[in-house]
């Protein structure tokens, strides 16, 4: 079975390896200039005002640097970062415990915030707005609200689908910053930096090849780099060249456009089962046997960005260039 190169799941081993490759300061955080400029200003303002930074929502496909940026923000503010995953918080009380533990100006990072349970989410409203928890105690006629003051904190929400956030939650973020896929120039800088961190001597051509085939995504570039390193180690090569990169890409089943097997499966199902479309997301997900959300959040954005799929009012349509790519 071939390794899933695009999927949003990150296993423990990869998390540990990723930690070593995370940018340690803003100068190591490459690209996303608009996002970084906004953050830079907000951080500096918070430091001058000596208060918590404004709440910020980071959105964009997986692997583009949302978690890395949140870590850099907390570091720049000189405060502690508390990390939770939205869907993992099951009860209001769990989130309340996290919130009451925050110290002034701390940063709370909620990953996949669009997947938080709505009942849990509701306690964030007053927490974000007034730094206060409103907790309902008891039931019926004897019910009353208890209020708990919280430290002034910063909420950083990360989401792959900002459109799925409820309006009350979205409105409470002062800044909405969007991550976009990286171009090959930016990615080649990231690839070079990370190859050095991994102790790989990477040739120029090899570097460019990885940058072009990483689906615009630093996390995928890191995955390719790891495989490339394996090839170089096993073949006792001191400098990694284009041959090692090609071998790694072949093993990972990544094609010329940087598409992996699932990307291609989506395109070929659209072509062979639906005559190029239009096809709705439900039908597509059923035919592929792949979760609808994963298709929409992980695969489709890149295929749309590359102009391989087009969205029409009647559904998704395969573009001419996709047809060409498949044949
Ligand atoms: N702007 C960037 N500059 C340098 N490396 C980056 C950047 N964005 C992401 N990376 C690399 O990609 C990896 C995954 O990024 P991460 O922040 O976990 O993405 P996300 O949280 O958006 O899924 C990081 O460990 C880092 O090595
Ligand atoms: Mg993340």
Description:
The protein has 14 helices and eleven strands. The chain has three domains: 147 residues, P-loop containing nucleotide triphosphate hydrolases (Rossmann fold); 68 residues, Helicase, Ruva Protein, domain 3 (Orthogonal Bundle), CATH 1.10.8.60; 66 residues, Winged helix-like DNA-binding domain superfamily/Winged helix DNA-binding domain (Arc Repressor Mutant, subunit A, Orthogonal Bundle), CATH 1.10.10.10. 37% of the residues are buried. The model has no long low-confidence stretch (mean pLDDT 93). The chain is an alpha/beta fold. The strands form four sheets. A five-stranded parallel beta sheet has the order 2-3-6-1-7, covered by helices on one side. α7 packs across α8, α7 crosses α9 and α9 crosses α10. β10 and β11 form a beta hairpin. The radius of gyration is 22 Å and the shape is globular.
CATH fold description of the largest domain: Rossmann fold
Could you describe the largest sheet, including whether it forms a barrel? 5 strands, parallel
* Mean of pLDDT: 93
C-alpha end-to-end distance: 24 Å
The CATH class of the largest domain is identified as Alpha Beta
Total helical segments: 14
> Looking across the biggest beta sheet, what order are the strands in?
2-3-6-1-7
| Distinct small molecules bound, one entry per kind | adenosine-5'-diphosphate, magnesium ion
- Domain module tally: 3
One letter per element, helices H and strands E, the order comes to: HHEHEHEHEEEHEHEHHEHHHHEEH
Radius of gyration using CA atoms only: 22 Å
The number of distinct β-strands equals 11
Second CATH tier, the architecture of the largest domain: 3-Layer(aba) Sandwich
Shape: globular
- Report the structural category: alpha/beta
* Residue share in β-strands: 5-15%
Task: List unreliable stretches of 5+ residues.
Answer: none
The CATH superfamily of the largest domain turns out to be P-loop containing nucleotide triphosphate hydrolases
Helix content: 40-55%
């Amino acid at each position: 079975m071939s390794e899933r190169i695009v999927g949003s799941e990150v296993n423990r081993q990869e998390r540990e390896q990723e930690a070593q490759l995370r940018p340690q300061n803003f100068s190591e955080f490459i690209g996303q200039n608009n996002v970084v400029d906004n953050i830079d200003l907000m951080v500096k303002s918070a430091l001058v005002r000596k208060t918590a930074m404004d709440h910020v929502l980071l959105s964009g496909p997986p692997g583009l640097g949302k978690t890395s940026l949140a870590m850099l923000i907390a570091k720049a503010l000189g405060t502690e970062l508390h990390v939770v995953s939205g869907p993992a918080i099951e009860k209001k009380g769990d989130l309340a415990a996290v919130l009451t533990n925050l110290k002034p100006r701390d940063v709370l990072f909620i990953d996949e915030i669009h997947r938080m349970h709505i009942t849990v989410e509701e306690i964030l409203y007053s927490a974000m707005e007034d730094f206060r928890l409103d907790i309902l105690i008891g039931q019926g006629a004897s019910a009353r609200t208890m209020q708990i003051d919280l430290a002034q904190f910063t909420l950083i929400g990360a989401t792959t689908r900002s459109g799925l956030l409820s309006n009350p939650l979205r409105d409470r973020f002062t800044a909405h910053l969007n991550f976009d896929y990286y171009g090959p120039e930016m990615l080649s800088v990231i690839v070079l930096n990370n190859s050095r961190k991994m102790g790989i001597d990477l040739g120029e051509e090899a570097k460019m090849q990885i940058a072009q085939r990483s689906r615009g995504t630093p996390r995928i570039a890191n995955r390719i780099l790891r495989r490339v390193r394996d090839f170089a180690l096993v073949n006792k090569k001191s400098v990694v060249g284009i041959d090692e990169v090609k071998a790694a890409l072949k093993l990972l089943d990544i094609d010329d456009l940087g598409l992996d097997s699932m990307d291609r499966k989506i395109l070929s199902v659209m072509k062979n089962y639906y005559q190029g479309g239009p096809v709705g997301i439900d039908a597509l997900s059923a035919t592929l046997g792949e979760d609808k959300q994963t298709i929409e959040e992980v695969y489709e954005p890149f295929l749309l960005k590359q102009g391989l799929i087009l969205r029409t009012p009647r559904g998704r349509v395969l573009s001419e260039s996709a047809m060409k790519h498949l044949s």
